[in-house]
């Protein structure tokens, strides 16, 4: 009798390294019957950078157990094909039912993906690529991929007309989730936001205007006059230029 392949993904929060697999074989016999099992342990280290560069995909009519077995491989291969990255550079760290949906209705899958050199896709780039290729991703994964549900940025918290970007932050580790062939330990992040501020503004919500005249940028005695998002140099007689 051959036991199911058991893959253990333990998610830790430390410095990022590539997932490292450990392969073990087990054999047991009572003198009449014998069984063997193969266990692959994969440990993935989750960092704040990974969380801040991640997205959450919503899958219709999906449970945690069904996602892990047998559809996890399909999802990883589909995402890697859409993003044109190797499968091993797609890092899933959370699978969690949508608490606002009916039981067994929507599954939220959070992940990040690495570019060559270990730099992660920005979350907005991931979201754009997956949104534009949603029909293809649905076909490749054999799952119904729903549009993104960005509740955090709906109230438009960023001031001065800047873009709001949803980001995840570490909250807590979660219990193991099991399926017939996989044991998976996710983390439960919390949703936050990041504002992309224009030149001349700073703060969590781009609410603070920077005095760009503070560094005396004007040359040859020019007078620096502040304006929204920048400054203007008022030149002395016989001088011109920015």
UniProtKB/TrEMBL annotation:
BP-aspect Gene Ontology terms: cell-cell adhesion
Gene3D superfamilies: Laminin
Stored InterPro entries: EGF (IPR000742)
Domain of life: Eukaryota
Keyword Repeat: yes
Pfam families linked: EGF (PF00008)
SUPFAM superfamilies assigned: EGF/Laminin (SSF57196)
Residue span, EGF-like domain: 149-207, 209-242
Disulphide-bonded residues: 197-206
Assigned keywords, A-Z: Disulfide bond, EGF-like domain, Membrane, Repeat, Signal, Transmembrane, Transmembrane helix
Signal sequence interval, chain numbering: 1-17
Protein name (database record): EGF-like domain-containing protein
Lineage: Eukaryota, Metazoa, Chordata, Craniata, Vertebrata
